[in-house]
Structure formats: C-alpha cells, structure tokens
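Tip: read the tokens left to right.
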C-alpha cells in the first residue's frame, strides 16, 4: 500500500499530464456511464478507451516520431502505436554496469564530505578496451543536474555520449553524484530515512560536495588542476563553491557550463506557476513527513515503469510531459534510449533543493542561497533576506552553452549570468531552435550541435 506522502510527486505528475492532454472527453464518458444500466461497465470501459485513444492520438503528432523505423510506425489509424519499445538491457543497469557493458574500464569510489555525506564517484580512466596506462590523461569532471545522476551522461550511444567520447580522446573522465541521489544516499551517522538527512540544498552541494570531490580527484590523479563540465544544477554547485572558497579556483583549468542554473527570473516552464506558493508547499511536504523528492522508491517511478515503457505511444506521451516542462525538442530524441533514460531518471534529491529553484525564480535576476524566511535568514545570514552569491569572485575561464528553446534556463538568464562572470571565454547558443534543457544530455545530434565545439575549447588531454 502506498503511503500518502509518496503520492504527492505522483499527483503533481498527473496534473502535468492533465495540462498536456486536455482531457475534455471525461465528462462525456461519465454521462454515458450514468445513462447505462446493466451494460454500464462495458460502455464506460469502451468510452474510456476511446477518449484516451483520441487524446493520445492528438499528442502523438507532437511525439518523437521522426526517428522511428517503418516497422515501429505500423499502426491502426484510430489508435496510437502499440508497438513495444526496442529492448535495451541497460535499462536495468546502474552507471558502472553501463560503462562495463560498453567495453570501457571503470572504477568506483566513495568520497566523504566534511559534513558526513558519502558520495559515490564513477570513473572512466581510459579508452574503450584499454587495460594498461589507465588514468594517465588529464582529469575531466562531469557533474549532473537536478534529479539526475552519473548515469545521465551515459544513456546515449557511446559515439554520441560526451563521457565516452572524452574517454576515447584520452581524458580521464570522472562522473560525480550529488548528495541524495540514488548513488549518494549514505552518511557517516544518518540514514536516508531520517528527516535530518534531507536538510540540504545546492548550497551544501557547493560548499561541501564540490570541495571534497575536487580534492579527491586531484589526489588520486596526482594532478594540480582539472577540467569541470557541469549541466544545470551541476553549474549552480560549482559557482557556489568558487564564490565561497575562491582559493579552489587555482585547481580549475577550465569550466564548461551547459544550461547553467543561476538566475531563473525568466523561466517559462509551467513549473514557475507553483513558485509563488513554494513556502506553503514546503510546509505541506514537512507535514506529510516527505523530505525526499522523486526518489527511486517514489510512486512516480512506479508509474513511470508501469506505463511510460509499455509501448511507443505511451513513451511519446511521457516524453511530451518532459517537453512541456523543459521545452519542445521532438526532432532530436532517439527512441532507442527511452528505456535507459526511464530506467535511470529521476534519481532523487531533497525537497529543499527543488524549492531553491523556485526561490531563485521568485527573487528575480540574482543568484541566492536558500531562503529560510526572515527569522531563519537573520539567524543564518545576519540579515532578513538571503545575500546573493558574488559571481564576480568566480574568475576561472568559463564557456557558457545554452539552448534557444530552454524553458528552465532561458537565453535572457544566460545573458544575465554572462554579464556577472568576469572571465567568460565564449557564450554559445546551440545552433538548433528546438534545443532545450534536456537536449544537452539526450540529443541524437549532439556531436554536431554541441560536442565537437565543446571539445575544441578544452585543453589537450595529455
């Protein structure tokens, strides 16, 4: 039986489905049921089927259809494609297993932060099939974004995945996992079932996770500097760390920011409609004793596994929910990766981390730490409002990439960030009008749109 707190993210998901599908047919179905007698149940079922069929058929025209094969697209005119998704054994694999399955060397480490969180760190120390001279290349650290994990860098084919491409070029690739995700759920004294475990946001990720992992990588590789590549919240964490501990900047050779989340003042995702109510929503989550958001054991993950992978039609519907929130990009997604994507995402985080995104939207063009309310802020920051992070202190070389169709991190917010960072080397708009927040990880055209140019900015792997 599902506990009530675990239903909250699921209900939010259902609300999104409602917005996308516009189920106006429901009243018709219910009217039919009222008029029916002994055959009411069969009439109801038939009309539910017809209503859902019509809705999904309408959405199907916007789903990622272009890349589907002719066999996959064979379907009855009155219903969406019921063809099963292509099988993919990596759906049930974790990040380490995926790396092994692709034929690359791999290592896994545990890194303990100064506040007691134990983070899992994955490493690809060499090219495909390489067995000697491992870890001799220049270290590159890839850090995921909100609700993601190290696996999100690995879900596309090896010749399209930035992590594997960098490994084949001779870089020593390190994949981070932020506290609270599926790989980093341990603590020296706490368990993830305790509410105090989840009392963190990206502030703590920047102040504790980044320094711990940075120093660990440099110690293991016996290097003085590394290359940092972050996506979304992976950039937020980095900027917090560099602004808080400027001395760490001497250990960063280059930073590449993919859709960096700082100011979110111009966010256009439907999620922003919830932002003004973030404090009441946080209170509700606390009242229901829910501190983890979209963790692996959440009911949303059950729903996702149960329905989103049933067939191509349902997969298209679920991807369109993602596009609703992040921006439409139906031309760049490959059906072959859907099973792996849904098997590894979402990876979970704290409610407080998600709330901080809303707070940065509410605060306008600025980049602030977590807002504890007037009293909490005064106790924590000695002022009634959270003091913005000084991005002018972040003096490492930064390359900024953004998508024109990103609804979470919009071009206007990227331009604001570029105006605050003192050492921006390049500000790059990806050359595709459909490119969105998730495209940085899942686009089948990323070699042309992103990877080739990004790699050209990096120092030599030697």
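Filled-in amino acids:
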């Amino acid at each position: 039986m599902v506990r009530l707190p675990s239903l909250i993210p699921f209900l939010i998901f259902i609300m999104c489905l409602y917005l996308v599908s516009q189920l106006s047919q429901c009243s018709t179905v219910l009217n039919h049921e009222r008029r029916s007698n002994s055959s009411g149940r069969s009439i109801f079922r038939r009309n539910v089927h017809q209503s859902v069929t019509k809705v999904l058929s309408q959405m199907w025209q916007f789903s990622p259809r272009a890349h589907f094969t002719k066999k996959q697209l064979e379907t009855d005119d009155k219903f969406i494609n019921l063809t099963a998704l292509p099988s993919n054994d990596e759906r049930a694999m974790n990040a380490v297993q995926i790396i092994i399955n692709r034929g690359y060397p791999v290592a896994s480490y545990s890194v303990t932060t100064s506040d007691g969180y134990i983070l899992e760190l994955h490493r690809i120390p060499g090219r495909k099939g390489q067995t000697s001279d491992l870890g001799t290349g220049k270290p590159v650290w890839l850090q995921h974004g909100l609700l993601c994990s190290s696996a999100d860098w690995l879900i596309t084919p090896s010749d399209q995945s930035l992590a594997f491409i960098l490994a084949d070029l001779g870089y020593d690739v390190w994949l981070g996992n932020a506290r609270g995700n599926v790989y980093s759920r341990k603590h020296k004294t706490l368990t993830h079932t305790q509410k105090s475990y989840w009392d963190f946001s990206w502030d703590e990720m920047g102040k504790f996770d980044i320094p711990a992992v940075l120093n660990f990588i440099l110690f293991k590789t016996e290097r003085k500097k590394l290359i940092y590549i972050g996506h979304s919240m992976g950039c937020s964490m980095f900027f917090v760390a560099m602004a808080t501990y400027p001395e760490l900047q001497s250990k960063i050779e280059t930073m590449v920011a993919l859709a960096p989340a700082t100011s979110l003042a111009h966010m256009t995702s439907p999620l922003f409609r919830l932002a003004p109510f973030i404090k009441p929503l946080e209170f509700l989550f606390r009242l229901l004793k829910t501190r983890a958001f979209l963790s692996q054991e959440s009911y949303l993950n059950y729903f996702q596994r149960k329905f989103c992978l049933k067939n191509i039609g349902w997969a298209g519907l679920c991807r369109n929910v993602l596009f609703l929130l992040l921006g439409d990009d139906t031309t760049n997604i490959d059906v072959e990766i859907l099973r792996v994507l849904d098997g590894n995402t979402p990876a979970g985080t704290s409610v407080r981390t998600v709330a901080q995104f809303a707070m940065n939207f509410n605060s306008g063009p600025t980049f602030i730490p977590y807002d504890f309310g007037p009293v909490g802020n005064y106790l924590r920051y000695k002022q009634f409002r959270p003091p913005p992070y000084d991005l002018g202190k972040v003096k490492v070389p930064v390359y900024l990439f953004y998508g024109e169709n990103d609804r979470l991190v919009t071009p206007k917010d990227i331009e604001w960030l570029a105006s605050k960072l003192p050492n921006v080397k390049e500000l790059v708009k990806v050359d595709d009008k459909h490119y969105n927040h998730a495209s940085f990880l899942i686009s089948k055209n990323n070699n042309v749109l992103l990877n080739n140019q990004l790699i050209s900015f990096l120092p030599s792997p030697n």
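Residues 1-41, 51-80 have pLDDT under 50 and may be disordered. DSSP finds 16 helices and eleven strands in the chain.
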